[in-house]
Amino acid sequence: MIYDVAIIGSGPAGMTAALYGMRAGMSVLLLEKAFPGGQMVSSHNIENYPGFHGISGAELAQAMKKQLTEIDYKTAEVVQMDLSGSIKLLTTKKETFQAKNVIIATGANPRKLGFSNEEKLTGRGVSYCATCDGAFYRNKTATVIGGGNTALEDALYLAKFCEQVNLVHRRTAFRGDQSTLNQIRANEKIKIYTEYIPVELVGEEQLSEVVLEHTETKDRLTLKTDGLFVAIGYQPNVSFLPEGILKSDFGEIITDKNMMTNLEDVYAIGDVRRKELRQIVTACSDGAEVISAIQRKVNL
User: Fold this and answer.
1) What is the rounded distance in angstroms from the CA atom of residue 274 to the CA atom of residue 255?
2) How many Å apart are CA 156 and CA 270, to the nearest integer?
């Protein structure tokens, strides 16, 4: 079978594209190597998605998935791609699929700090998902690194469990929503350290301290902490892609206004592409836009 559209990744962007493709009467294949929802699943409480005032990312992901009643959804990892011809080939470990159009919606993974012992301490005090691991630090001290919405939300979430939460940001101004920042400042459990960066993780088998350095004075400060939650952005999931797809210096796929890459009939949507705002609602917008663009092209 040759699908009209094959989508790689079932985050909010991929699932929205699948939904719009399905409703447009297209034959749609959706390939996901893990579980639906992508990074959205790690959000414990979503308050900025229209129509829902407080819903977990996992709940929203399942609600989106239930709408995909007339597509082929397969749990499989794409390991090889041939995007050169008019019919694209997507190969998993078990089979090869054919499609006229390919949409890359593979999202991004959390960026790491880059310390030599970071990997060793991951799961031993270092985490990239407060929702996943926050409960392990009940009545303990946690430290969050970052200045965007994810970092602010993580700090608020951890304050529910922890005795104290340190929030560390390298700048004076935060990038997150002002309403969330107001909640941060009003929470007595959260202590803010601005103009500091982490320079060392201390601990052999378990994290015990994080050493901070002031960005201007270079003075150092050591914080005792049971858990360190890193929220400094994401690295686009593009390592599996063949050569030839244009990407930014940060690894984001470059697209035009119709979400098309430099390769004909190959598109990118959501956090994997270069864009200014990365939110669930903008990922969904990408998913709707890309199907509309494919329809317009077919009808020319």
Assistant:
1) 7
2) 26
Domains of the chain (ranges plus CATH)?
2-109+234-299 (3.50.50.60), 112-230 (3.50.50.60)
162 counts as catalytic: no
- The DSSP letter of residue 242 is P
Q: Quick check: is 72 catalytic?
A: no
Q: Is 132 a catalytic residue?
A: yes
Biggest alpha carbon distance in the chain? Answer: 63
The residue annotated as part of the active site, out of 129, 226, 271, 286, is 129
Please enumerate in sequence order all residues whose Cβ is within 8 A of that of 114, keeping only pairs 6 or more positions apart, or say none.
none
Cα–Cα dist 266/5, whole Å: 10
**Which helix (DSSP H) or strand (DSSP E) does residue 34 occupy?**
none
**Candidate list 72, 82, 133, 249, residue with the active-site label:** 133
Nearest to 11 by CA among 298, 253, 287: 287
pLDDT tens, per residue, the chain with 300 residues:
999 999 999 999 999 999 999 999 999 999 999 999 998 887 777 878 899 878 888 999 999 999 999 999 999 999 999 999 999 999 999 999 999 999 999 999 889 999 999 999 998 999 998 887 898 999 999 999 999 998 999 999 999 999 999 999 999 999 989 999 999 999 999 999 999 999 999 999 999 999 999 999 999 999 999 999 999 988 999 999 998 999 999 899 999 999 999 999 999 999 999 988 888 999 999 999 999 999 998 775
Alpha carbon of 282 to those of 1, 48, 149, 267: distances in Å?
A: 32, 11, 15, 16
Give every CB contact of residue 77 below 8 A, 6+ residues apart in sequence. 31, 33, 92, 93
